[in-house]
Specification:
- This protein has two domains: about 110 residues, Urease, subunit C, domain 1 (Roll); about 290 residues, TIM Barrel.
- Helix 12 crosses helix 15 and helix 13 packs across helix 15.
- The protein is an alpha/beta fold and about 425 residues long.
- Strands 1, 2, 3, 4, 5, 15, 16, 17 and 18 form a nine-stranded mixed beta sheet that branches. Strands 6, 7, 8, 9 and 10 form a five-stranded parallel beta sheet that branches.
- Bound molecules: the ligand CSC[C@H]1O[C@@H](n2cnc3c(O)ncnc32)[C@H](O)[C@@H]1O and zinc ion (ZN).
- The site of the ligand CSC[C@H]1O[C@@H](n2cnc3c(O)ncnc32)[C@H](O)[C@@H]1O has 18 residues, from helix 1 and strand 7.
Length: about 425
């Protein structure tokens, strides 16, 4: 592959010092960054030179929790609490999902994520072979898992576990490492304890991380106490979950002791502020997590509870929400919000050696924003503008592993019109009550 260099950009490296390089450049070859620094005078050695004057170049965003197939249910059931939303709206429709529903729901998600600057996503869902195939075809990077709900007879539990394991073993490392996998019990309230232990044992055997919903609502915490005599964190600790590298989604309702436990085991958190607000679940103790050194990353959850996959919105939300909630404007500064959407996201999906920042040796996963638009001016603090003023609609170009996937706002690897048409067709076929 030829050497490419992008010059005259404002480069947000998101390295250890959050360095911003004005009139900066990044170069890459074979999908790997070979240069990050000021625009060099000598450009003869590069096969392709891209002038990014008036643009911001930054790491691709990492969405650490979602269910991509559920974009098919965007707007279908709003303004309900989680349990009612799941039991009366989501699960009855998902029970009708075939591979084709997941294909077009996931395609809708992938196009949206790519066009709004997400280059890596986590997906916990069913029919995951389809999701993996689409990930490969789209050029995105992902950490995928077949989510298992254990509220079913033992034979069914075993079938799901075997399916999840086979998927995880088959796809881990696929597409030159762009697809990685995990094992995923859906939650402590949907999986009996012995089932969680079996899933974790399988994660040990396959040497994979664990992903799970945890402590999302007060109802869930109380249910855990009623059923097992402990709150979810102690429950999962006892079941050995945290002995594996673990990414928990939500982590809204936590005591001080539970926060200490997460810090002790280096459990990664996917904070989903917009979904938590929309479902009325509550506000996670993010400033207390940060104080303890817990890795806090950002997730959208699905389009059915968000209702989009624009991670720029989560970045702004996390920076604002906790300031307002604690009446303290110092909390979650813009630099930390940006890190949550990039390098902390990379840590949360256990890929920080490869993605999350623009540094030589890392993968060339990056996005280019049009910073000529009026709300990027005066242009003295690009990190502030990216977090507080920008949106996913400002993303012009997207590269993963050095391959361009979005060019001037158009997705090169997916047929957007066909995706929209098919998603509408598949939604129309579902029987609604
Ligand atoms: C089979 S794994 C995916 C499963 O998760 C459900 N889901 C979607 N959003 C949430 C959420 O916020 N909390 C808990 N579970 C959620 C989805 O409906 C799928 O069945
Ligand atoms: Zn979820």
């Amino acid at each position: 592959m030829m050497k490419t260099i992008i010059i005259h950009a404002t480069v947000l490296t998101v390295n250890n010092t959050n360095e911003v390089i004005y009139d900066g450049a990044i170069a890459f070859e074979n999908g790997v960054l070979t240069y990050v620094g000021p625009t060099p005078e000598e450009l003869d050695t590069y096969g392709e030179v891209i002038d990014a004057q008036g643009r911001i170049v930054m790491p691709g965003l990492v969405n650490t929790h979602g269910h991509t197939g559920m974009s098919l249910l965007r707007g279908y059931a709003d303004d309900l609490p989680l349990q009612e939303w799941l039991e009366t709206k989501m699960w009855p429709l998902e029970a009708q999902f075939t591979e084709e529903h997941v294909r077009w729901g996931t395609s809708l998600s992938i196009v949206e994520m790519l066009k709004t600057g997400t280059t890596t996503f986590v997906d916990m869902y069913d029919h995951m072979d389809i999701v993996a195939e689409l990930t490969v075809a789209s050029g995105m990077r992902a950490r995928l898992c077949r989510g298992v709900i254990g509220l079913c007879p033992p034979e069914e539990q075993t079938r799901k576990l075997e399916e999840a394991s086979a998927f995880a073993a088959k796809w881990n490392g696929a597409a030159n490492g762009r697809v990685m996998t995990m094992m995923a019990p859906h939650g402590a309230y949907t999986c009996p304890p012995d089932y969680i232990e079996r899933i974790v044992a399988r994660a040990h055997e396959l040497d994979l991380p664990v992903h799970i919903h945890m402590s999302e609502t007060e109802w869930e915490v109380q249910q855990n106490v009623n059923d097992y005599g402990t709150r979810p964190v102690e429950h999962l600790e006892k079941l050995g979950v945290f002995n594996r590298p673990t990414l928990v989604a939500h982590a809204v309702h936590l005591t001080d002791e539970e926060l200490d436990t997460l810090a002790k085991y280096d459990v990664k958190v996917s904070h989903n502020p917009i979904s938590n607000l929309k479902l009325g679940s509550g506000i996670a103790r993010v400033p207390d997590m940060m104080e303890r050194g817990i890795c806090v990353s950002l997730g959208t959850d699905s389009s059915a509870s968000n209702n989009n996959l624009d991670l720029f919105e989560e970045m702004k939300m996390v920076a604002l929400l906790h300031k307002g909630h604690r009446q303290n404007p110092v909390l979650v500064p813009a630099t930390e919000a940006l890190r949550m959407a990039t390098i902390y996201g990379a840590e949360a999906v256990f890929m920080e050696d490869r993605i999350g920042s623009l540094e030589v040796g890392k993968q060339a996963d990056f996005i280019i924003l049009d910073s000529g638009r009026v709300f990027f001016h005066p242009s003295h603090d690009p990190i502030s503008h990216v977090v507080y003023a920008a949106s996913g609609r400002d993303v012009k170009d997207v590269f993963v592993q050095g391959v361009q996937l979005v060019k001037d706002g158009r997705c090169l690897t997916m047929d957007e019109e066909a995706v929209i048409e098919n998603a509408n067709r598949m939604f129309a076929r579902l029987e609604k009550k």
